[in-house]
Amino acid sequence: MNADPNARAAGDAPAAYRVAESADVAADAVIGDGSSIWHLAQLREGAHLGRNCIIGRGAYVGAGVRMGDNCKVQNYALVYEPATLGDGVFIGPAVVLTNDTYPRAIGPDGTLKGADDWEAVGVTIETGASIGARAVCVAPVTIGRWATVAAGAVVVRDVPAFALVAGVPARRIGWVGEAGVPLTEDAPGRWTCPRTGRHYTETEGVLSLEDE
Q1: What is the pLDDT of residue 153?
Q2: Coil/strand/helix, residue 117
Q3: Residue 175, Cβ density class (10 Å: 0-12 exposed, 13-18 middle, ≥19 buried)
């Protein structure tokens, strides 16, 4: 993910992006040109959005979260810091990216925990990956490029590139290509996208494009 020279802090003017009046956007959040922040969304301090991103109604983007270009965060999704999203990532409605490995409201002595009493860990989502509605990604996990997490899945381990995972806990049930549709197996270890015609090779559980 490259830094966008056209991005600017939310407090700067004039803005080349759209922010709904009811949205809560920190003055030092950085928003790329062409992006849209919709009603009741919250963008915390130091968050960095690339160009042409869409943050849906009621979504939360935590402090310092970094997001590439052309990302979509759908309504009421929760992207907790310090998550990192590559270019073209899709976050479905009500998705949760967690950041606390061992959550507790109080310490062993019964006192309320504060910000210094735990260390946030983030979810990393690579280029083109999609997270289906109401899925939960339990940090720290990495979702590989162009992977798809099915709706309602709970991800507790890393997801390889191009994998289609589903269930609780999420397990790989197939492969997908850049178009998002399941690949078909033409021969052992050789897969084809029915939409684009591109070919992939599977080696020891790793899928790669043949022409890369």
Answers
A1: 98
A2: helix
A3: buried
Write the pLDDT tens digit of every residue in 130-155: 999 999 999 999 999 999 999 999 99
Q: Which of 147, 144, 142 is nearest to 130 (CA)?
A: 147
Tokens of 6: 């056209």
Amino acid identity of residue 86, one-letter, is G
What whole-number distance in Å separates Cα of residue 192 and Cα of residue 165?
Answer: 18
Reported as half-sphere exposure (CB side, CA atoms, 13 A), residue 13 has a value of: 0
Instruction: Count Cβ atoms below 10 Å from residue 208 Cβ, excluding itself.
Output: 12
CA distance linking residue 92 with residue 89, whole number of Å: 10
User: Which residue, 115, 128, 40, is CA-closest to 77?
Assistant: 40
Mean pLDDT of 98-102: 92
Retrieve residue 28's tokens.
Answer: 């030092």
Rounded distance between C-alpha atoms, residue 103 and residue 123, angstroms: 16
Residue among 127, 113, 112, 77 at smallest CA distance from 98? 77
CB 38 within 8 A of CB 56: yes
